[in-house]
Design a protein that fits this description.
This protein is α/β, with parallel strands linked by helices. The protein has 22 helices and twelve strands. The protein has three domains: 277 residues, TIM Barrel, CATH 3.20.20.70; 108 residues, Orthogonal Bundle (Cyclin A, domain 1), CATH 1.10.472; 31 residues, no CATH class. The strands form three sheets. It has an eight-stranded parallel barrel with strand order 1-2-3-5-6-7-8-9, surrounded by seven helices. It has a two-stranded parallel ribbon with strand order 4-10. The longest helix has 18 residues. The radius of gyration is 24 Å and the shape is globular. It starts with a strand and ends in a 5-residue tail after the last strand.
Length: 490
């Protein structure tokens, strides 16, 4: 049996799934980098445009410098960027020239592998993006086949998408992406061979979240069927709504007789580091999920479920939760079965909520639902229900949205900023609030060392600094003693 490779998703997808993308700043990632380099991963799922924006907004980290420093620390491992095609940070579509610049700068900074994902599986658009990347650099392109459950998303549907994309010659790898954890071992036994049959010698990877507890079983089936690489997370960043645990996956594969070329001491050291970090920063630890069959119907991930419960509680309508979840399934079918990955869970769930608590279904239609129906997020995979479509198209608000610019252009955006502005700064300012970029630039000289053992002490000192009345501080913990005094104290 051929060796199985592993892709580490901890700093991007694990961080996003369990820590709202905010749990790791640049210093905390870089502290783990030497261990990641030694572990033997075939790639690191490192960032996305949304992930870059979160780093700016919450940590004042320069995302371009983050990529450069991580590439310096990980010279032998490709850093992976996941992209939804013709958009960068904003959900507004950008023109080819804008995206060409964005992809060029990402590769120059150190990105070596792009995951190209279109929630609608618009292969024509994805091939265009793949072509731009190949023209601008030498990174690998990986086609994402995003798994979901619907009458449209059959094995043949995914095989047709894979055949069309790989025939272009612009892709180096393919992966089956199961972001909602809906894949079952039974379906994996038909889906994986269907995809492998049309992609020739291209490597096939599997990425299956733990949401309903079946991903480890899927991974063993995938290995049996010839999957080349499995995506895993480490320590507290595994399980829950994240990806399978790396150490458990390694043990399971070896028990079944598969070779995994990985450095286990490095994996154990990474686990120790991330657990210490979680404890120091008060971050939750992923735990194994029990099977929940209801999830296969509404397909709404944990974050959106929590938000929906909170909204209902604020309205005193907690008892409507089950009705809203049932309505989610109906609305999704009426809107053409969009895959429930951001932003579509939020769009579908909001419409379902309004349908349940309103006087009539589709009496209140959010702007994002209108934009979805108008194709602003891409072409719906299946036709929108005709009655729903007629209702939306008759709204005065729909006419207003139709007059909005459809695509952001590089030419127009360039006019808004000085010609001397560096491209990296321009790309951020074109799609983000200026005050957030200003704060990032002011903070650009921050250090890149992090030690979770002293993080609580440093946090306490930072908080105490904001209290001018404090003249002297004494910190005692076991044998550790630290005394601090203001300048006028002896």
């Amino acid at each position: 049996m051929k060796p199985i490779k592993l892709v580490d998703v901890s700093v991007r997808d694990g961080n996003q799934s369990l820590w709202s993308m905010t749990g790791l700043n640049s210093a905390q990632m870089l502290q783990a980098a030497p261990l990641m380099e030694r572990a033997g991963f075939s790639a690191i799922d490192f960032t996305s445009s949304t992930h870059m924006a979160v780093g700016v907004r919450y940590h004042q980290d320069d995302p371009w410098e983050r990529i450069r420093r991580m590439k310096q620390a990980l010279p032998t491992i490709p850093l992976q960027f996941i992209s939804t095609g013709f958009r960068f940070i904003s959900w507004e579509t950008a023109d080819h020239d804008f995206m060409r610049l964005a992809y060029r700068k990402l590769m120059q900074a150190g990105i070596g592998r792009f995951v190209l994902l279109d929630p609608m599986h618009d292969m024509e658009a994805i091939i265009q993006v793949a072509s731009i990347i190949k023209e601008e650099g030498d990174a690998d392109n990986m086609l994402a086949l995003t798994y979901t459950l619907s009458a449209v998303h059959t094995d043949q549907f995914y095989a047709d998408c894979a055949r069309q994309a790989t025939a272009s010659g612009k892709f180096d790898l393919v992966y089956i992406k199961d972001p909602s954890g809906l894949l079952t071992p039974e379906r994996a036994r038909t889906l994986i061979p269907a995809v492998k049959a049309v992609i020739g010698k291209l490597p096939l990877e599997l990425h299956s979240h733990c949401t309903i507890g079946l991903s480890q079983f899927n991974y063993m089936v995938g290995a049996e069927l010839g999957i080349d690489a499995l995506h895993v997370a480490i320590g507290p960043l595994a399980h829950g709504s994240s990806l399978p645990c790396a150490s458990q996956t390694i043990a399971n594969l070896r028990t079944h007789g598969y070779e995994v070329d990985i450095n286990e001491p490095a994996i154990k050291a990474l686990e120790k580091y991330y657990f210490a970090h979680a404890a120091a920063e008060g971050l939750p630890i992923g735990t194994p999920q029990a099977y929940d069959a209801a999830f296969t119907r509404h397909q709404v991930a944990g974050g959106v479920l929590t938000t929906t419960r909170r909204q209902l509680a604020e309205l005193g309508l907690e008892h409507k939760f089950d009705a809203v979840m049932a309505e989610v399934e109906t609305v999704r079918n009426e809107l053409g079965s969009p895959i429930m990955v951001t932003p579509f869970p939020q769009i579908v769930s909001t419409q379902a909520l309004f349908n349940v608590i309103g006087d009539r279904r589709y009496g209140n239609i959010p702007d994002q639902v209108i934009r979805y129906v108008l194709g602003r997020f891409g072409r719906p995979t299946a036709p929108v229900d005709q009655n729903v479509l007629d209702r939306i198209m008759s709204l005065p608000r729909t006419a207003e949205i139709q007059r909005e610019p459809v695509t952001m252009t590089l030419k127009d955006k360039r006019k808004q900023f000085p010609a001397s502005m560096p491209d990296e700064e321009f790309l951020l300012r074109a799609v983000m609030p200026s005050d957030q970029i200003d704060a990032m630039l002011r903070n650009n000289s921050r250090g890149y060392y992090y030690n979770p053992a002293v993080a609580p002490v440093l946090k306490l000192i930072e908080e105490l600094k904001a209290r001018p009345a404090v003249k002297q501080i004494q910190i005692n913990k076991g044998t550790f003693k630290l005394g601090l005094a203001s300048g006028n104290q002896k």
